[in-house]
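User: Please fill in residues for this 99-position structure.
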């Protein structure tokens, strides 16, 4: 599940580098990360309830993408944004330990 979430982050960040899918190698890497993310999510669904798996997968993707956006693209790291990321992570942990 965690690796599926990391692949989610990879393709979301990769979209920025594809420049509208006009750059070949970033586009190939982004599409590969998309496939890996969905494939790994499918594997996780064998043992994790669908609602929990989807929420954890998108939560990891959202929090990781925001964090890398701050780091790589100098997006603002306001207190409110960081608090909201913390809330997402709290929800991920809560859902993961509740099933």
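Assistant: Residues filled in for all 99 positions:
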């Amino acid at each position: 599940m965690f690796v599926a979430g990391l692949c989610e982050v990879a393709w979301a960040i990769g979209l920025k580098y594809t420049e509208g899918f006009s750059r070949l190698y970033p586009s190939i890497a982004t599409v590969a990360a998309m496939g890996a993310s969905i494939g790994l999510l499918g594997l996780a669904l064998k043992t994790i309830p669908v609602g929990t798996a989807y929420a954890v997968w998108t939560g990891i993707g959202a929090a990781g993408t925001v964090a890398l956006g701050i780091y790589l693209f100098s997006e603002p790291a306001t207190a409110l944004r960081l608090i909201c990321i913390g809330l997402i992570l709290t929800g991920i942990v809560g859902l993961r330990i509740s099933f």
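For context: Helices lie at 2-18, 24-44, 50-73, 79-98.
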